[in-house]
Amino acid sequence: MKFPLCLAASLSLVSCATISPPASHGTVDHVVLMWQKRPGNTADRQALLDACSELRVIPGIKFLDAGTALASERPVVDDSFDVGLTVRFDSEKSLHTYETHPFHVKKVNEVLKPLTKKIVVYDIVR
User: Where does the Stress-response A/B barrel domain lie (predicted)?
Assistant: First the structure.
């Protein structure tokens, strides 16, 4: 009977170890929300997701992920956007390097701007 309890306790400790530690002081999260010009167009949505993923090659990115809005009935949740992008940088300087990087500028001008009617950006520093 002791073995199942020890196993359960061990597994719970392992799952705790998978939680990332808090971000370091000065870390910046760059959150981008996009509304498509043609809402519901799956090809446009995929092109936006692909363009976001391709940005991973830019130096200074610690984390990058993109996805779509999760529908919610909660009044505090804005689920009206089509595609969301979250990028983490180790510093404000890395964010500025990313913003001006030629590949980022190219993707914004050739994919994001042509396919979106609205883009909202939130930059959060720790």
Answer: 28-124
